[in-house]
Amino acid sequence: MKPLSRLVPVMLIVLALFSASLPAALAAPAAQSGGPQTFTVLVGTEAGIQQLASGPAGAWQIMKYYPDTITVNEGDTIVWKINSTEFHTVSFLTPGQQAPAFIMPEGGNSQRLLFNPQVAFATPTANFDGTQYANSGLLQRNAPPNPTEFKLAFSKAGSYDYVCLVHVGMKGKVIVQPKGTAYPKTQAQIDADAKAQIAADQQMALGMKAQAAQAQATRPGPNGTTVHVVNMGYSANMVDYMQFVPNNLTIKAGDTVEWQANNGATPHTATFLSGAKEPDLIITEPQQSGPPKLVFNPQVLAPAGASTYGGTGYTNSGLINGKQDPTPGPKTYTLVFDKPGTYTYLCLLHDNMGMTGTITVQATTAGAAGATTAAPSTLPTTGGAPSTWPLAAAGAALALAGAYLRKRSRAERA
Ligand SMILES: [Cu+2]
Q1: Structure pTM?
Q2: pLDDT at residue 366, rounded to an integer
Q3: pLDDT tens-digit series, residues 272-282
Q4: Which structural domains are found in the chain, ordered by start?
Q5: Which of 37, 90, 117, 303 has the greatest CB tally within 10 Å of its CB?
């Protein structure tokens, strides 16, 4: 929430200077004087802030621009500032251009997936006239050297749509008026509107908590055991809940946990590190010329480990794409827990938004203990044949995690 907190004092000063004495309609023309103006748009917001080791982060990520439509004049500049833990882009496509994919197959005989540098890195566009591809790259907070803002000057009157190339449906518009035209809103009014919209959207997101928990259910498993369902987040109205639901679960030895894909299109993982280092999401491979290759770490993408977990070994669901993602691939991940203990796990994509959980396994009573032995062999597997998973994951470009660039920068330092 840094950019917002920076904004608020400025707004208060502006309001203190002008609002008390001037009606809003009179304040507007003041913005006309003094040549080109610079306006600010906030990118994303979040709610349900938690204090994490990496800093404060929202469990709810809201994929919108504030404001989503802004009117400026020729010669003016807009600065987009990241305002969420999730990363986003601000991307103006050329007329008729298809949005470049965020994640793409490497091609040839490779099974690897790459992050598209055309999406990940900023274009050097200085003066936008509607004919160029102008892209912010991935705007991300607290992840230098990745940018936290994107500046673009507008040289030609017109109406320009832009999108986030990571989150389908996240879009904005810039209306550029001829030089000298009166502005419909000052920055102070824009800020006030944005602040009100952000507050409303945060309330809307927090109000979705009950729905997010709704699909939880248990059902009988084999031999008197229980299958417990954990939802991998929740997605609606351009809002993503980056939590396991429930995030702390207590079961009996021999029980099964079934993680279910996000109800939207957002990919997640359920990953038990068992004390090992979290794998980087991205492997950076410098090239002779041009941008480095950004390889989607196969260790994150691919399922790993056995179907029973007892506290040891890297055990990973691999990428579980949301239910609305048409890409073939598993929509559930199941693990049987046979040893008492408390086991922590995380989503490799969204742990920086607090997407972590625990499974506490209690010993069964003496009478039921024998029942657990037959459980693993009779449970369904998750599918996701190793030969098909990398391409299956390609469609998951829709909503990748903020972990990406943080890890990329870590990889680059290494
Ligand atoms: Cu996740």
Answers
A1: 0.81
A2: 55
A3: 999 999 999 99
A4: 2-206 (2.60.40.420), 209-413 (2.60.40.420)
A5: 90
